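USER: For my understanding, would you kindly supply a protein sequence with its structure tokens?

ASSISTANT:
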Amino acid sequence: MEVRLNELDHLPEALLHCPAVELHRHLPGPTLVHLPGRRPRPLFVSVLLHGNEPVGLQALQHVLTRHGGQPLPRALSIFFGNVAAARHGQRRLDGQPDYNRIWPGGEHLDTPEAGVMRAVFDRMRERNVFASIDIHNNTGLNPHYACVNRLDPPFLQLATLFGRTVVYFLRPRGVQSMAFARLCPAVTLECGRPGEAHGVEHAAEYLDACLHLSRIPDHPVAPHDIDLFHTVAQVKVREDVTFSFGEPGADVVFEPDIDHFNFRELPAGTVLGEVREGLGTGLLAFDEDGREVTDRYFTVESGQLTLTRTAMPSMLTRDERVVRQDCLCYLMERLDP
């Protein structure tokens, strides 16, 4: 099926109310919508880059309904991403690339979908974008937090407007916020699990606050106003290894409530699961330069998968499809702001 960018200068009325799974009835595919506002430099918001993460769409619906057709404080450009996957409530469909790994600067840019992301990037550069916000849910137990790809004060100011927990990362490549960081202050919001009302409310309040900003402060964030973490490794389960969460019989049997470890500093020796003999750890960990660093963080002792050093996981998930399509988790260390 052909994938191309659809661009509109108005928001179809039905989009104010329809759920993500019905979006395909009103949009033919990835769509960029431009809405006017009193300040002309647009705020850019991307939603549904992962089709099973509806919080961005729901938050925008709250904000736009609240304004009731009145002029917005600032122009707003909205990118509706993986409409096809949203129809089925999936992160991405089989055969599709991950819509948040194919933006300019990434490693997988030879697909029609990557061409769409390049077109969105170029269009927003032409429009002199004010700031960029990419909105996500996640599948494990995580606090709400913002991510940045640069540590410049305007990026951290934009992030702490969402909350004091901020994650700085340089991998994976090809994410939306990393591409737009070349144009303007850019953040990714992680708003908890799908279906949680607080995530929608929090994202909506944040979007409304950003629409009302006349400028983004460029002075440093006060150290007592931020908890800053640096992602040092991405952890995947090897493709040749089976795994489960508490169910016996798999090559790797992770702790059944492993997602409770998210955003907790775990000491060396923490047990994450059990591994069948002869498989090694069953994991692959990569640092932010793409080098394999599995042995730096994991070992197997008496059949138990354990940490070799203190680490703080994020995005640990018990969703097996997400683990296969993306990763098991990320590992972080605390940064002094």
User: Anything to note?
Assistant: Residues 112-126 form the longest helix (15 residues). The two ends are 47 Å apart (CA to CA). The helical segments are 55-67, 83-87, 112-126, 153-160, 176-180, 197-211, 294-297, 320-325. The chain has a mean pLDDT of 96.
